Amino acid sequence: MLTAPPGEEVTTVTGRKPLAPLIVGAIGVVFGDIGTSPLYTLRECFTGAHGPEENVYGILSVVFWAITIIVTLKYVTLIMRADNNGEGGIMALTALVSRGLTDRSGRRWLIVLGIFGAAMFYGDGMITPAISVLSAVEGLEVMAPALKPFVIPFTLAVLIGLFSIQRNGTASVGVLFGPVVCLWFAVLALLGAMQIARDPAVLAALNPAYAFGFLTGNPLAAFLALGAVVLAVTGTEALYADMGHFGATPILSARAH
């Protein structure tokens, strides 16, 4: 429970703070990774043996339904309901489940699994920023190969800048990155609408029959592609893990927007 010094009030995430800034902050922090993941997912899917042209609709369908099922059904419909007094994340989930166990041995193993999950979370927190920023900066090589020597120094500068801001708290990060990610999504929507207008036949990939046909008709190619498709859902764990920062309502509202 939140406490405050005498004479001061605690402002809860879902209580008295305006909803709009929380929604924008949630878009920047929670959905930033989800919004960029499909880009390098498609790049990986259409390289190598599993990327021939005849698999385009099948791969697009698998990516679309993977995002829909994991984000909408798994996290929004199920996991986000399992909050621990408004908190989310692996430790909150461990504490929530352990309350229903009376067997001490079972609780001990559950705590061990929770610690293991937390260790993996810390590992992900160390690796993901470096990989994400480096992947983004490497795009400079595509536009200007002469910039290749500057990729690593620029990546380090970006990471140092990000972590220097992050120490000020999630609210500061959300205020900075929320509008940026909103603009990013608007540009993606505009570019996507333009391409769909040029070739509306791509909407056929929304039919799950293409995903099923690709998985059953090309087992080897589908198996190889799934290793890349899973990249499209990286970052979805933030929906549950960041519930304590923003609350469930702003996150769900941000998803609806």
Walkthrough of the structure:
This protein is mainly α and 257 residues long. The protein has one domain. The chain contains 13 helices and no strands. The protein has helices spanning 19-29, 32-45, 56-78, 90-98, 104-137, 139-143, 151-166, 170-198, 208-217, 219-229, 238-241, 243-246, 248-256. α3 (56-78) packs across α9 and α5 (104-137) packs across α7 (151-166). The longest helix has 34 residues, at 104-137. The radius of gyration is 21 Å and the shape is globular.
Most strands sheet: none
Q: Topology as H/E string?
A: HHHHHHHHHHHHH
**Spans where pLDDT lies below 50 across 5 or more residues:** 1-15
Q: Tell me the distance between the termini.
A: 30 Å
**Domains (count):** 1
Structural class based on helices, strands and sheet pairing: mainly alpha
Roughly what fraction of the amino acids lie in strands? under 5%
The radius of gyration computed from the alpha-carbon positions, rounded to a whole number of angstroms, is 21 Å
Helix fraction, binned, reads 55-70%
Mean pLDDT: 76
Secondary structure: number of strands: 0
Q: How large is the count of helical segments?
A: 13
Q: How would the global form be characterised?
A: globular
